[in-house]
Amino acid sequence: MIHLSGVVDEDVSIRPAEPADLSELKELDAAVFEHLAYPYFVLRQFFDIFTGWWMVAVHPDGLRGYSLGVPTFDRGRAWLLGLGVRPEFQGRGYGRSLTISSLRKLADVGVRDVHLTVEPGNRRAISLYRELGFSVETLAREYFGPGEDRLIMIAQL
C-alpha cells in the first residue's frame, strides 16, 4: 500500500501541464533523459491524449519537473510513463511531490495497481519508488532497445 503524504516545497506548485508548458517540457525532458528523451511530437500527442494527467512542478523561474501517470482504459491499473526533474534540482523533493500528486490522481479514479519502468542503475529513483511503496516485479532486458534494460516496478494503491 502506498503512503500518499508529502510536502510540496513552498516556492513550487504542482498543477496539470498547460499548452504553454510544452516547449519547456521538451527542454526539461532532454536535460533529464538525453538520448531517450521524447521527441516533441510525442510530447505534444501525450499532452493532447492525456490532458489533466500530466503534472508539472512550477517555480517562478520555470518548470522544475514533471510526472505523467496514466490509467489504462478500464482504470484498474496505470503506468507512470515519466518522471523527470531537472538535474540541478534533483534531491530537493520535487520528484517525490510530483509522484505523490500523480498517484493521488490515479487513486481518485479507482486505479488499484501502478506500474513503472526505471533504469536499473538509477539508485535515487529506485529508492524513491521503494519509499512510496513500489517493489520490483521483473527485470526487462532491452526494454527500450539494445543496452536499455529496465526494472518494472509495481505498487498497490
From TrEMBL:
Keywords: Ribonucleoprotein, Ribosomal protein. One of its GO terms (molecular function) is acyltransferase activity, transferring groups other than amino-acyl groups. InterPro entries: Acyl_CoA_acyltransferase (IPR016181), GNAT_dom (IPR000182), MshD_Acetyltransferase (IPR050276). GO terms for cellular component: ribosome. Pfam families: Acetyltransf_1. Gene3D superfamilies: 3.40.630.30. The keyword Cell inner membrane does not apply. The keyword Glycosyltransferase does not apply. Residues 12-157 form the N-acetyltransferase domain. PANTHER family: L-AMINO ACID N-ACETYLTRANSFERASE (PTHR43617). This is Ribosomal protein S18 acetylase RimI-like enzyme. It comes from Actinocrispum wychmicini. The lineage of its organism: Bacteria, Bacillati, Actinomycetota, Actinomycetes, Pseudonocardiales.
